[in-house]
Amino acid sequence: MLSVVRPADRSCSRDCDPGGMNELIFKPDKWAARMPHTIRAMFYKPDASNADQALDSVAEMRRKFVNEYGLREADCPLLRYDQRDRLTPWSDA
User: Are 22 and 51 contained in the same domain?
Assistant: First the structure.
């Protein structure tokens, strides 16, 4: 179950506007039971003030994740998310 939390602790379904909130709450037992398939990709934001450090950190996290679960790198792509690019915000890192 996925829910979006709004101010005043009001939840809404996937179809409502969360009003700019970016917090998601997951039930951890269901999340953990579906690992490693719960994680489809890892990403960083190039417009962050520490973008180089963020990329290094996410790349290391991905390396550990792939090794832990015996995956191929292609099973968990490393992506760049540029929210300023309205047409193609997602690209390979």
Answer: no
The answer to whether the CB of 78 falls within 8 A of the CB of 57 is no
Mark whether 22 and 41 lie in a shared domain.
no
The confidence score (pLDDT) of residue 72 equals: 95
Predicted confidence (pLDDT) at residue 41 exceeds the cutoff of 90: yes
Give the pLDDT score at 66: 96
| Domains in the chain, number | 2
3-state secondary structure of 66: helix
Query: With the C-alpha atoms ordered 12, 29, 44, 77, is the resulting torsion angle positive or negative?
Result: negative
Q: Between vectors from CA 34 to CA 72 and to CA 81, what angle results, nearest 5°?
A: 60
Domain that holds residue 52: 36-93
pTM of the model as a whole: 0.67
Give which of 25, 17, 18, 23 is closest to 1, Cα–Cα: 25
